[in-house]
Structures are given as structure tokens and as C-alpha cells.
Amino acid sequence: MNSPGNSSQKVPVLRHPPAPADSLLWEPSERWVRGMKGDVTVVDSRRPVLVWEPGRPVPLYAFPRDDVRTDLLRETEKSAGRPHAGTTLFYDLDIGGETIAGAAWTYPGEELGSYISFEWFGREVLDHWYEEDEEIFVHPRDPHKRVDALPSSRHVQVEIDGTVVADTRAPVLLFETGLPVRYYLPREDVSLDLFTPSDLTTRCPYKGVATDYWSWPGEGVPPNIAWSYPDPLSAVGVIKDRVAFFNEAVDITVDGERLERPVTEFIKPRE
After folding, report:
1. In degrees rounded to 5, what are phi and psi of residue 263?
2. Alpha-carbon distance 43 to 246, whole Å?
3. How far out from the chain centre does Cα 137 lie?
4. Do the beta carbons of residue 138 and residue 204 sit within 8 Å?
5. Is 256 helix (H, G, I), strand (E, B) or coil?
6. Would you give the distance in Å from CA 177 to the centre of its chain?
7. Based on the number of CB atoms within 10 Å of its own CB, is 36 exposed (0-12), middle (13-18) or buried (19 or more)?
8. The pTM of the whole model exceeds 0.85
9. φ/ψ bin of 230: left (φ > 0), alpha (ψ from -120 to 50), beta (otherwise)
10. CB 157 within 8 A of CB 253
11. Cα dihedral sign, 90-104-124-127
12. Distance of CA 79 to the CA centre of its chain
């Protein structure tokens, strides 16, 4: 009898591959999605599709024409933003006396040719987007991505240029697919008096709005190195008012082991 670890059947073992870089992927969604400009509902759909463009790590929504205020759209051949996977048909949005150039587009091909998509990431042409009754920011949530915030008893220390700025045995570890683990620490275990408050505000579709940022006063450290969510989305409510640091630019030690600094799009390594 073969043991579980020594099966005679040869099964290939592959690490989960990324999506093909030259493919446009899509799938239906059952979420109720609305987009608003001011007090005007421009999109109201219970049958959107999610679309992943080549080279783009986050999805966009596309909506059946019947679910879009097409009376507010004007066809144009010009894009006001980045190209969209072979698209040649764009729309300006005319609303309230304002014209937003290249606000929407239709993808080529039979599967998506009857759908309309709107700019989100980097150029939000509508003021508010909702999935069901919860407002979301930046881009649609990816159903294949998880964000788990787990309370822990690990011993976490944070150092900047040799100075210990945080020390706790009660962190919350936030695991987000494709990103380094973020350690959210109790404020009382962080020496915030060593930092300078910042007025930066950022938004995340999975965590909400971060309005509390801090910068390290020393040289060679990127600004806004630490942040907090005073009112996070309910799914990660346990991180409320806790402080996290960019692992990419500080030294984090967990249970006595110094972590290697990751390299991400958020913080470039020092030269």
C-alpha cells in the first residue's frame, strides 16, 4: 500500500499561475452595483460582469446597456485615459452641464460588445459606487482575492533606522492576496510621538478610508510610512484605530526573526 505522500500515480504539481498577460478575462457577478454622479444614478445593475484587462491586476465592472443611462452618453473615438484592450468605441458623459471626456467605453468582441464600462482606478468619473448598500472605492472587489484580519499573540517589533518605534504582543495580522502581511498594532504600543502627523487620505475597496497617516522625521525614509483606519469596513473591523507600517521601508521582527523587506509597487527600495 502506498503512503499518502508516496502515491505511485504521477500528478503534476504546479504553483497557481497568473492569468495570461495577453487575454481579456470576464465572468458574471450577482452583486447589485450602482454608480452615481452627484444625486444622479448613472448605473443601476443587478447583472454586471467583471472584466480583467491584460496587464491589469484589478478588475473593472461592465454593465448591460439597459442598466446604464445611455441618454447621458455621447459616442466618441477618443480615449481620455489609458487604452482598454483594443477598444475603439468610447463615450463622453454629459451630465449637469459638465462633459467628462472618455468616461466610458465598450469592449470589442461578441461576448462584451453589448456592455458598457466606466473608468474607476486613477480616474474616477462617477462620485460614488456601491456594491449592494456598501460604498466601495478605487476599483471593484476581486472575488478571487481574500482579505483576512486575524488577531494574534505574536511578538512584533518595528524599527526605523535602529530605533524601536513599536513593540507589541497583541497585533492583528492582515493577510491580503498578493501583498505582504501587514501588522496592525495597538496605538498604545506604538511611539507615535516620534512621528509627524500627515493629512494624507487613501481609499481601499477592501478596508475603507485611511485618514490617519504619519511620517518619520529622519532622512531616507519615505513619507507617510504608517497609517490607520479610524472607521474600517465591517469585514476588517478588528483593525480599527490600529497602526500599520510599510514593511517595505521599516524593519519588522516577528517572534525574534527579522523579516526580509518586500518589494512592492507602494514603496521603492532605497538606492
Report:
1. -115, 120
2. 36
3. 8
4. yes
5. coil
6. 10
7. middle
8. no
9. alpha
10. yes
11. positive
12. 24
Name every residue whose Cβ is closer than 8 Å to that of residue 89 and which is 6 or more positions away in sequence. 75, 77, 105, 106
Question: What would the grid cell of residue 144 be?
Answer: 478571487
Distance CA 208, CA 236 (A): 9
pLDDT at 205 over 70: yes
For residue 180, the model assigns a pLDDT of: 94
Grid-cell match 456598501, residue found: 134
Is residue 103 a contact partner of residue 91, using CB atoms and an 8 Å limit?
Answer: yes
**Of 195, 162, 191, 176, residue with least CA distance to 239:** 176
C-alpha cell, 16:
497557481
Q: Which residues fall within 8 angstroms of residue 13, CB to CB, at 6 or more apart? A: none
Provide the pLDDT for residue 42: 97
Digit-coded pLDDT (tens) for 134-193: 998 888 999 999 999 999 999 999 999 999 999 999 999 999 998 999 999 999 999 999
Has residue 271 got a pLDDT over 50? Answer: no
CA count, 13 A, side-chain hemisphere, 218: 12
State the Cα torsion 130-52-28-100 to the nearest 10°.
40
